[in-house]
Design a protein that fits this description.
The chain contains 1 helix and 2 strands. A two-stranded antiparallel ribbon has the order 1-2. A hairpin with a 2-residue loop joins strand 1 and strand 2. The longest helix has 25 residues. The radius of gyration is 15 Å and the shape is elongated. The N and C termini lie far apart (40 Å).
Length: 58
């Protein structure tokens, strides 16, 4: 059985998730947490850019 490199638990299968520009393999629970963390980071960045009046592209 494969082992998740993030949480070190044995899982039935690993899921490939794109983190930044790289794809990482992790269990489904870790993949869900990572996706949620990326969503929060994008939303917080948008709020900060709005406060600063940034109108350009990233």
């Amino acid at each position: 059985m494969p082992t998740c490199p993030v949480c070190k638990d044995e899982v039935e299968q690993l899921k490939s998730v794109k983190v930044g520009k790289k794809a990482k393999k992790m269990c489904e629970d870790c993949a869900d947490r990572e996706a949620e963390a990326q969503t929060v980071a994008e939303e917080s960045e948008a709020v900060v850019q709005g406060m600063m009046g940034f109108k350009g592209r990233r």
